[in-house]
UniProtKB/TrEMBL annotation:
The lineage of its organism: Eukaryota, Metazoa, Spiralia, Lophotrochozoa, Annelida. Belongs to the AAA ATPase family. It comes from Dimorphilus gyrociliatus. This is Peroxisomal ATPase PEX1. It catalyses: ATP + H2O = ADP + phosphate + H(+). One of its GO terms (cellular component) is cytosol.
Amino acid sequence: MTAGESVFVLNLATIYPDGNNHPLHFFAHDADFNEHLTKDGQLSAIVAIFQHPAKENNAKLIFVQPSLECRTIEPGNKGDGLTLYATKSALKNYDIDLKRTYYAKLIPNVPTLDSVFFSVQTDDSENWLKSDSFRNVICRMIDSSPILIRKNCMFLCPYDERFHQYTAYSMDLLREIFISDCSPIKQGILSKRTKIIVKKTPQPFSKREDLSMFKENEQNSKNAVLISDFAFGLSIIKNEPTFLNGAKTNLKIMCQIVDEEEWKQLTDDEDLDYMKDALISKQTAYELGIFDKSFLVIKFEAGTWRTVRICFINKNNRSGLYLSNNLAFNMSDDRIFWLSQVERPLFIKKIETEDAEEVDSSSYSRKATVPFAKTVHIDVVFSPNYNASDLYSSLLSEYFTETRFINEGDIFAVETRNDKNFVSSIENFPPAKLVYFRVKKMTVWSEFPTNTLRVDKENSTLYQEGTTQMFIPPKFSSKQRYLPVLHKNLSNCLEHCEPFLRDDRPLDILPTILICGPDGSGKTSLAKALAENLGMHYLVFHCQNLGGDTPGATEAKIKQTLNKINKMAPIILILQKIELLAKEKAGSNDDIRIAIAFSRLIRKLSAERKNLPFLIIGTAIDDKKVNTDIHQCFTHHIQLNSPNESEREEMLNYLLSSEELAIDITSKYLAQKTAGFVMSDLYSLLLKAKKCAQIDAIKSLCRLENEGTTSNNYMKTLHLCGLVLTKENFDNAISALQAEHSDAIGAPKIPKVTWSDIGGLENVKEEILNTIQLPLEHPQLFSSGLRRSGLLLYGPPGSGKTLLAKAVATECSLNFLSVKGPELINMYVGQSEENIREVFKRAQSAAPCVIFFDELDSLAPNRGRSGDSGGVMDRIVSQLLTELDGLHTGFDVYVIGATNRPDLLDPALLRPGRFDKLVYLGVASDIRQRTKILEAVTRKLKVADDLDLETIARNCPRNMTGADLAALCSEASLNAVKRVIDRIEIDDNNKETAIVELNEGDFNYALSVFIPSVSEKELQKYEEIRQNIESS
């Protein structure tokens, strides 16, 4: 299965729909089809189309066939080109823009699909898809022609006369069928082995293209009146007070400042320049009387006038006037204007010059010619990403091949990705995507009322003179727009940074910030985003690389690094793992000399700061591990916690926005399953899910094709068709990640224990669910905080305390964090209390979560009676009480403790607000409870049909616990295995028919040798403890 190798330049043209053809199919002239697409006389072909010849991933598959209508048109292919014809509905469905260049590639062997999910809206469509007539016709069509299936698209089956065998058939039935899902890839063909699922969906499909009126709409478009974007009625121009024919006063409107990426999404015109063009909605232009591609002069309240070209927005759902952040940056005198709102007042006026003249006496269109600059003197802006002393003549020459609008003082960026000389000339520097320049001075051929001039290499002479230190235009990445959690932390950082950026600093405070958080939480990403938002450069150093063989060498490295700041300001220096800075090379102790030297250098740099600011940001996992002297150098501290469920859902929405997901997977489901994950973990999850999907797709395709083909032969086709990520792919990826990192990051899990695994204890189950499940299902009723957070399960060993806690976590969909009491105790002073705090911290980040303290009596004994000389246990109990009291601050964290000896616990633990709900779990004293436990244990075992578990339960002693009954079944199962082995040894013919089946004899034997783990005397003691607790 190998895709065709020939790639054609695709020429597209529109045709009007034909009632006998599918509206979403593409058509080719006979000559083109026979030359490029036919194979063995086939009358249809599957073609992949994509925008870049070297990037074929996730191509769009189209169904192409020769058309009778196209035979009247001359062949359109020239050279290697291929001409296809399609309706406007087809172009819109495939999101094809006729202005762009596309490439096509024949796919001779399209992979078949494992399953297809059809969604319909009417009973007729549902009945037709389920009829024998549809099934028979489809099977015959598959033998002669491929039937293309695309997820989130109409059913692309060609029309066939045999469909009319179904009495209720009409052509509209095909248009009502929508492909909601398919697997293992998002586009492929039907085969006789493909599983088809049909479901009626009453509500409209969210991604379905409405084609019910495609005939009328496209036919009417033949006689549509073509109206120019800038045409206005004569009565409107003469009678209404529009801006165009209004007074000479300046007009003040509100404009929106957007980043470059969002600015480009507002228009489909690739020739526009975000440095010279302002975008305006047609409605706003209509109200102001502004023409498309006309020139205006604009400025902010604090700034100079600037000439821009006004271009219309193609998106009908947007209104207003939009400036790119680069253009707005160069228009503003205040270089930190981006700290304010993105909506700002803008003054606009006409160009008052002799060059702005009326074209005709009856026309209100005006033209203006912006003069060319004679000479342009340019400085390179200092940056740590490139060598500002190099000569960038080739970069500037390529950039000014197109005409640019430039003002004196402008900062502009030139991309370096196509410049080989740039890469080789600065090999000692990391590869940079952009080089920044500043326009130092310009001379003109003739005077012009504004400072804006046109510059290109044909009409202007460019001089690269020197270097300068300046702010650069800010950036707002897509992460910041679509991740509210990052935007929230970024806003917090901006508030701390604003005083450092002003020239009139009110206080002599150090420009430093310490960002703490777990690995992968985005500390460095936040610092980089801060630099990009502030228009500052950034330089990243890992503190481990700053260490030397001796303290003196380390001090010299730190001094050398910090001395770069003032030379490259404005800049943010990012010091990763700041807790390693003062560590001795051969040990874990702090080196006081390094810490003092760092502190002294920071204060010296702050005192010597010139006009341009700088910031130093340190990152650490835990601020408590940072040296005290270094810690005092950081003025502001920002803590990044592990994201909660809603924040993880936001991150997943961002990561999955460009992925194809099956209908059974949602970001909310993944957010619930990924408690304790940070951004890097979620990204790893996506990569693992893709790998699982790829492996599953290859296995499925090999199975469907009945081939032993290796995976390498399928990889290219899989990339073309695109993978669909399923719930199973993500579940496998989550299991793998949790298995890899559970010890490293303490990722809580949801255990697989259900109520069916626990026999009896109905009263206990009800009591627990009332405590935990009600606040989860009705949080609004418990908003005042009056809810229980602690449960204490006590009773004899083996009564099911641990199993019950796991079942609570499973049935309530809570994460489960199991903690054994002794494992929290540490020999170092204060470390045991730190372990307690860390447990609750992990649980809060994984909320909703259950913390299960097993053997609680060993962790929290009665204070004053522990007998240790250091008072460690007393401090542990006090710390545990403190953490329990803090659970009522809004976190969905529940604590369940288990103990055999509640009388040994500190009484403070049992007071209201802590473990205030005590639940006793005793032995199964009656026959009914013992029977249910036996049913729960044996439900996964094979038992004889005549086995009566109630009889077995009646023969069991009354002091048997749940663990004893499970051990009884294990002993009976072992006896059954021995019995089968003995029968096989007697006669080998019994080997193939041997089945291990438990009967009443096996249980009777187990009972005869079994001794309960809790004696009658011990059971009586536990009952006395229960009575004492309930009475108190």
